[in-house]
């Protein structure tokens, strides 16, 4: 009985799997680096259409529904203003408003945002 030959075959099998593990790990890293991880919108919004560059809204976007509901990260309703007060006021605030929202309601929201220090906003749109 030759036990050395069996252990040699086992060692060859173990070494053959290492390149496959390396390839799987590299594929995993590749897909993680190229994936777009954006949180889902808090409610369904039909965004405003405009010509321009199409981009995804950043995660710190203020969402406004057609009926005036507000959402920012995990805050909903009037709690949004408290959450926005903790935000860095130097960066522009992206706003994703529904196309059915009257412009007067959006305009009425701007003084409340200015009270908490947000003066620069960006309206997120989609291409027609």
UniProtKB/TrEMBL annotation:
Membrane topology: Single-pass membrane protein; Single-pass type II membrane protein
UniProt-annotated location(s): Cell membrane
The entry's keywords: Cell membrane, Membrane, Protein transport, Transmembrane, Transmembrane helix, Transport
Main location: membrane
Cell membrane as UniProt keyword: yes
Superkingdom: Bacteria
Transmembrane segments: 16-37
Protein family: Belongs to the ExbD/TolR family.
Protein name: Outer membrane transport energization protein ExbD
Gene source species: [Roseibacterium] beibuensis
């Amino acid at each position: 009985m030759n036990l050395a030959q069996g252990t040699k075959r086992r060692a060859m099998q173990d070494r053959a799997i290492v390149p496959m593990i390396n390839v799987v790990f590299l594929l995993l890293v590749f897909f993680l680096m190229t994936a777009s991880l954006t949180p889902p919108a808090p409610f369904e919004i039909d965004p405003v259409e405009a010509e321009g560059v199409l981009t995804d809204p950043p995660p710190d976007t203020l969402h406004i529904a057609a009926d005036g509901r507000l959402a920012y990260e995990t805050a909903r309703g009037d709690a949004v203003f408290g959450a926005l007060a903790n935000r860095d006021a130097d960066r522009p605030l992206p706003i994703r408003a529904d196309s059915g929202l009257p412009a007067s309601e959006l305009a009425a929201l701007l003084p409340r945002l200015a009270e908490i220090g947000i003066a620069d906003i960006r309206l997120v749109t989609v291409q027609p």
